[in-house]
Amino acid sequence: MLADNRALGHVEFASVRQHKDAIRRVVTSREAHVRQHGLDLEFSLPGGNWTPDAHDFLVAYRHLLDGDSEITSRLRLYAQAFSGHQLLTMSPGCGKQSVNEIDEYYDDRLREILRVPSEWVARWRAIVAQCPDRFRFRPQPILGEVGWLVDGVIVNHDTYAYQERLNLLHESGLLTWLERREQRTGQVRILEIGGGYGALAAALKRAFPLSSYTICDLPESLLFSGCYLRVARPDCAHLTYETAQDVVAPQPFGFQYLPNFLFPALVGAGATYDLVVNTLSFSEMTAHQVRTYGEGISSLIGQGGVLFEQNQDNRHMGLCYCKDHLAESFPHRRTVRSRTVRQVENGITDLWSNFALDGTLGAQLDPTPAVDRISTGDRPLLRKQDVKGFNIVEIGGNFFALAQSIGPVDFHQTSEREWNEWIVAGRCFVGSSFEAAMAFASSQRKAGVEQAA
Predict the structure, then answer these.
(1) 348 and 375 in one domain?
(2) When comparing pLDDT for 358 and 8, which is higher?
(3) CB atoms within 10 A of CB 410
(4) I need a surface site. Which of 210, 277, 410, 414 has the fewest CB within 10 A?
């Protein structure tokens, strides 16, 4: 019930108010900043399904922006624009206002609604049983979260929707791979394009406590995700970018909130990400916006990261089919077909990368263990020279694609840190077959001129 929610403390509201003030400044100066710096107007300003003309979402945005502690403590009840479901009435949100009066009798009415579990409870039970506990979404009793309490979890439509995405991320192999990378390197970097009210960020941050998590979104949407996550995770650092000069590589272990028009600055800052996520919002953008994101993400993930996206075909609504435009930026695509989600709610799920993806996200994404198996008795064998600036070398039953720009490599003396740096930078690939190493090298641009082995 609403009465069961944890009250918003003074320190928490002070943090939220700091974020609100930053977002207010960003929105107020946005168009002038874009024009002054010669940024791409079509990409930078709201478009597609977010054109500001008479948009109900803007009513919710202003209500939250100007609201006091009591209004802020009910944030979830104004966030239907992100899921299409009105939490206030536990019903579809289409055609309904985002901001409604919440009187002292609300919990009494809600109790009647919750008397009989909805279909989302049964569907949630079915899919959550197929996902490891560490990858389960557990919404906290904060900011107006209401629903059926099932096995200690507050379940509603949105709980199901975000669990569906976590199931798909797990089944793709990405979450297991990120776990290994976090254990090996001490940190992973995640970028979410369009973070909604912050639910997926909260779930992935719980699963990967050492992660650096960046949300890039319209500043109006960042109001919601930033407020939600500051309350849900007060133990983390939170940084709201306001200008291009603020944008630097992601800070370790915390959250960063990046207004969409500063996305080119993030690309220009030389940031790198292991995982980029987009669910549903590419399909609400213009084709130009999707293409711009595609080009930028391709640079941000290099040869070591992956884009996970789940989107619908919205051409019947006068919008675009984002996959047609993403294909211009990524040479490799693999569709995730779920075994645990019988009826996927929100479109086709694809993985995109700059290198060949196998069926299990195996050696291409987790090459370091192969390096560990090299013994001093193994001798390197040059199998193929100068494949787009890479040499293919076999040693100890493993196949390496090494950028010639690295220079000579002593396989028996090279440290694990050096291997990791080359892998992350896209200068090295390790796989279990000659074909996989060739596929990686063949997909690259010319990488260098010096011999690597």
Answers:
(1) no
(2) 8
(3) 8
(4) 410
Q: Are residues 317 and 394 in the same domain?
A: no
User: Letter for the amino acid at 26?
Assistant: V
Establish if 119 belongs to a structural domain: yes
- With vertex at residue 410, the alpha carbon angle to CA 409 and CA 411, rounded to the nearest 5 degrees, is 100
Are 19 and 84 in a shared domain?
yes
Q: How many domains does the chain have?
A: 2
Mean pLDDT of 161-178: 91
Residue 103: count other Cβ atoms within 10 Å of its Cβ: 8
- Neighbouring residues of 408: CB distance < 8 A, sequence distance ≥ 6: 451, 452, 453
CA dihedral over 317, 318, 321, 326, signed as positive or negative: negative
Residues 315 and 225 in one domain: yes
The whole-angstrom separation of Cα 46 and Cα 48 is 7
In the chain, % of residues over pLDDT 90: 60
Domain closes at, from 353, 385, 405: 353
> Is residue 121 within a helix (H) or strand (E), and if so which, with residue range?
helix 119-128
Q: Which helix (H) or strand (E) holds 131?
A: none
Of 353, 376, 395, the domain-final residue:
353
CA 279 vs CA 108, 217, 276: distances in Å: 34, 12, 10
Residue 416's domain comprises: 368-442
108 assigned to some structural domain: yes
Angle between helices 157-171 and 174-185 (to 10 degrees): 70
What b/e sequence results for 180-218 when a residue is b if at least 16 CB atoms lie within 10 Å of its CB, and e otherwise? ebbeebeebbbbbbbbbbbbbbbbbbbbbeebbbbbbbb
- Note the pLDDT of residue 253: 73
Predicted pLDDT of residue 245: 83
396 with 319, same domain?
A: no
Of the candidates 383, 375, 368, the one whose C-alpha atom is nearest the C-alpha of residue 422 is 368
Q: What is the Cα–Cα distance from 418 to 400, expressed in whole angstroms?
A: 14
Over 70: is that where the pLDDT of 87 sits?
A: yes
Q: Does 199 share its domain with 102?
A: yes
- CB distance 419 to 370 below 8 Å: no
Q: Is residue 279 part of a domain?
A: yes
| CA contacts within 13 A on the Cβ side of 339 | 7
Do 30 and 132 lie in a common domain?
A: yes
Q: 406 and 294 share a domain?
A: no
